[in-house]
Amino acid sequence: MKAKLFNLYLTFLLVSVWVACEPARQPQAAAGPIDNDSLLIKYRQEGKLIVAESFKALSKALLTAIDSGGVSHALQFCNLQAIPLTDSMARLYGAEVRRVSNKNRNPANKASEDDLEIMTMMQQAIEKSKLPSDTIFDDKTGNLIYAAPIVIAPPCLRCHGMPENEIAAGDLQLIRSLYPDDKAVDYQTGMLRGIWKITFKR
Ligand code: HEC
Which residues of 138-152 are buried (b: 16+ CB within 10 A; e: fewer)? Predict the structure, then answer.
């Protein structure tokens, strides 16, 4: 009986020591710094270029759609073409190109926890009346992510401003039928609408 108790005690002791000696698991950083400066500069430049080109392509398509058929036509155009358009930029540049937001219209554009962290940082810069800066970091899986702010300008308000005041009633109805869970309204000029997120897979 004594021997049994001793064995039990020994097992308990060994398990405790083994658990204590196991190296502590480091919590994974959501967004880590990159220690290679030249890599950082290279991807930041590439990210800036992809954002500039994607923004140009989207704005041109949006303006053409508004010109040809008004806001309601442009809404339907965005509904069908916004993601395919950024996907075509992605294919062109070999990186993932997305626009994400904490108040997303399309459910596919919902910001992740990491995206929300970046948005908070940019939001704080806006509150200090500074221009929010772009940023680059490696994510949990080692991919490099370039993120740039998307800020509301007056032309955005027709589709993202105050319902029934800046967004016409008919357009609002269309938005709600295309996006039953839409959160992307009530913005004012200068507010952070979301981020461009360019992912370079490594
Ligand atoms: C004609 C209406 C219209 C105008 C004007 C417009 N948007 Fe949008 N916006 C949309 C629609 C529709 C979507 C959803 C697109 C989709 O389904 O992928 C959207 C999506 C977005 C998204 C992606 C995140 C999300 O919520 O799904 C961002 C960011 C965005 N708009 C920013 C802007 C900004 C900034 C402007 C002004 C420069 C602007 N939009 C002007 C209709 C518009």
Answer: bbeeeebbbbbbbbb
